[in-house]
Every structure is written in structure tokens, then in C-alpha cells.
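Appendix B. Raw example, untouched.
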Amino acid sequence: MTLAFRMPSLRAVAPILLCLLSLLGVFAGTGCQSVAWTRDYYRSSDGHIYPPTPDDTPVQFLDGFPARPHRRIGRFQLTTEATASFMHRAAEYNARKAGADAIVLTSLRRIEKPWEHYVPPTLTYVPAVAYHEHWENGPLHRRGHTTVLSSPGIIPGYVERGLVIQHSIDAVMIRFTGP
């Protein structure tokens, strides 16, 4: 007896591939994650609402407050497990939405937090294969069969350890008031 396996057509597999690719997009991480949810971490400091700047407007990142006349318009603070490049995009997004010309970074940190989690013991079943052979009506009529039994097995509990890496940003949004 031969078994023939025929490859399914692309038309039959396309819906499955589409589902898998969409799941890959969902679980791809924060590389493509939207920064829009970070708007909750911006607070206005002067009570004015400035018009947002266009998305292609460059935003300056400064290490200190400039000598050029400016007004502090708000503050952006966020700590998350997202990447540093995500934090950069989130700060730019919030600066543009707030109408800021520049971002003064007061703090930009990488935080490493160790964690432990106890995994309790589990009971599992291990398959055990047995081959039985017996004789019927003499040695020429030998018959055999295979039996799959399961034996209980215990996986002992253990402590799982890891490291959570977070990035934290504290920035002041400023708007230039003069040349």
C-alpha cells in the first residue's frame, strides 16, 4: 500500500497564510507599535493649547535648556518595556501633538529589574511502548502486537528567574518664543 500526498493549492492555503501573517503582525513586538497611546503621559504645564505641528516637522532633542528665548509648554514622562527607539518616536509624536519645537531630555534611563516566579510541580503522563509476542499453535504461528501504555511522571517545581528591561523618559516640551 502506498500513500500519496498531494500539495494543496495556493488558493486553498491562502486564507491560512493570511491568518498567520496577521498574527505575526500582532506579536511582532513594539518595533511597529503605535505611539498614539502615549499621549496620556503628556501634561500641559502652562494651560495653553497650541496647534500641532505637521508630522514631517523635525523636533530637536536637547540635553539642556537653550539660551534662545522659549516657553515650557508641557512635560512627557513614560516608563515602559518598549525599546529605546519606541521611546524616541513617542517623545517626537507627543511634541508634535503639543505643538512643541524642541524636547529637553531631563532624564533618559534604562532600568533592569530582576524577577522570580515559582513554577509548581506538575503531573504528566509518559508514554511507554510495549511489544507483546505470543505463540498460537506452535512456533510457525507466532503473533505480536504493540501496546502503548502511559506511566505517571512528576516534573518537580522550580524557580524561574529573568530580567525585565524598561526604558524611562522624562522630558520637557518647549516652544521657542524668539529668534
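End of appendix B.
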